[in-house]
Design a protein that fits this description.
By secondary structure, the protein is of the alpha+beta class. The chain contains 2 helices and 6 strands. The longest helix has 14 residues, at 47-60.
Length: 97
């Protein structure tokens, strides 16, 4: 399996599967070509979305404002845009799988 992403001139869009209510926050490989992200918060009132952005910001060492959910606000399958060097971000994301 390969991670599904789209390189842009100013960043990258990555396909993500969020698993809320997990025991800890972690990137735990791939599921259906999407990055599997476990979060230790419930999927209530946008808490999982907020935690996902905060967690990715910390892991990828980018500001929270550089990350946005462009599709899937209310589902577990999301497309997340991360602003930055596409090659560097791709390398960082692939290091998790």
């Amino acid at each position: 399996m390969n991670l599904k992403f789209i390189k842009l001139g100013d960043g990258i869009k990555v396909y993500v599967k969020v698993l809320p209510d997990s025991s800890k926050c972690e990137i735990s490989g791939l599921i259906n070509n999407s990055l599997k992200i476990k979060l230790n918060v419930p999927p209530i009132e946008g808490k999982a979305n907020e935690k996902c952005i905060k967690f990715l910001s910390k892991e990828l060492k980018v500001s929270r404002s550089a990350i946005s959910i462009v599709q899937g606000e209310k589902t577990r399958n999301k497309i997340i845009y991360i602003k930055g060097d596409p090659e560097q971000l791709q390398g960082l994301l692939l290091s998790y799988i």
